[in-house]
Predict the 3D structure of the following.
Amino acid sequence: MRASLTDLPEEPAGRSGMPATRPQAPPAAGRAKSPARRGTNAATAGHADRTPQIRPSRDGGLPALQRELGAHGRETVRRLLEAGLAEFDEAGLQSARVEDIVKRANTSHGTFYLYFANKDDLFRTLLRDALVDMSNVADDFPVVTSNEAGQTALRRWVHSFSETYAAHATVIRILSQADVVGENVFGDGLHLLFRVAEAMTQGMTAAGGGPAGDGLRTEHAELTAVCCLMMLERVNYLMSAAEVHLPKEEMVDRITAIIYAAFRS
């Protein structure tokens, strides 16, 4: 079973669109400009500019969103989400059953339907948290300069991406199956992927035109970012599989080196 919901800090709801402009380069490694940041996610806990906020999943699915939940209701939502995540991890979205979810949560069918319309609604509720956390990772992409500080900042981001991916591995794995989740939900994931690629493009090329951007290769930068991101996602997909054991820190080192080199001559 993957990381439980209690392992994840609280997050706010909502996500913004893809950035439209590139930032000006600072003299040293920093963060690329991106949409406003929103609280602390699973991978960037401890950042001084973030404060814990309410996670979107705490209010439950469609039926629960029609009313204000108290402490008992939110605790019930948490238990159902924990149980649903475990069932999705073991059986997949298609084979998971509400009967097994309520049994694992030690509650009833009637209680389940007070908070979620069906198992797909429960999955979409889990997905809201994953999209917010990965959106925050996109916001945190640094300006990568052509020096040791730039490489260190990039490695920190790759590690952050991997930590967040691992926290939501079950949901992201299901999200990658368009025939299972449907076009609209799959589209949300695809939108986020290109948003992260845009943030990578900005961060990797923002230092161009100054000493901090020596050797920078900006031609086809967007395509390079998509290729690097797909590599990063697939490696993390493999690392999240129970039957595949890869040395995480070494993989982070190698991925960082590959991304850094891909944007430099």
In short: The first helix runs from residue 71 to 95. Residues 6-29, 33-48 have pLDDT under 50 and may be disordered.
